Structures are given as structure tokens and as C-alpha cells.
Amino acid sequence: MTDQLDTFASDYGDAELLHQPGNLPHPPLSVDAAQVPLSGGTDPAYGEVRWRTLINGTPDHPRELVLGIAEFGPGDRLPPHRHDPAEFYFGLEGCGTVTIDGTPHRIAPGIALYVPGGAEHGTVAGENGLRFAYGFASRSFEEIQYRFSASA
């Protein structure tokens, strides 16, 4: 047993520490959502939803995920659509309904929803509006191809 521990200790001593900033594929990132301008709200295909993309890659500097905050006024909507990567929603403020493949799901603070890749989904905010965090395992938001059901 002692021989095994000595071997493990010497192997560990030669190991490369993966969590050192120099070994990471991207440097750590801190983003203040209040400093990120809103996008959206102008293209009728997307409904009235507006969003802040907080973590995003570019062709020159891709990342492993996309993170943002979607914001809806009272009764605002994001029409039914599909995209290939799976997505999550995490309720922050207000409430609403997210319909995934025909099944309505309540979203409100503290509620997480998983939207499988390729699933049709759309959102309608409640009477006080809605804010939720969303995320994709994608290199950039621009790579995600939205396919709206109304235009299919």
C-alpha cells in the first residue's frame, strides 16, 4: 500500500494543474448584465422579446457556451421556434408560460426548464412581464439557427 501511495504522490507531483489561468482555453470572464445593452424587440419574427447576451464567442474567439437574459414586458411573446442546440431557461423575475412541443410549462423565479434540441418552443409573459436566464452549449449566439414555426 505504501508503494502505491508513493507512486501516486510522485505521479501527482508531475501532473499539470489544469485550473491555472495559463492552461485554460479562454481566460475567466466577468460580465455585469446592467452594462450590456438590450437587443431585439424590433424584428416581428422574434416577437417582442429583448435580450442581453452576456457570454458569447466570436469566430476568432469561440467559447463553449452562450449565456444571456431574456426580458419581456407584460404579455410579450417569443413565437414558437426550433433550433438544434438544447437550451435552458432559469426564471429570474415575473412569470409566464413556455410551451415546449405542445405542453405548457410555468416559468417563474427559481424554475428551470430544459428545452431539448430541435423541440418547438415559444414563450408568453404574464401580466407583470418576465425575465429569465437562458443558455446554450454553443460556440456563439450567432451560430444558432432559429427556425420559426410560422415561417416553416
TrEMBL record:
Pfam families assigned to the protein according to its UniProt record, in alphabetical order: Cupin_2
Q: Which superkingdom?
A: Bacteria
Q: In this protein, which residues make up the domain named Cupin type-2?
A: 69-125
Protein's name according to its UniProt entry = Cupin domain-containing protein
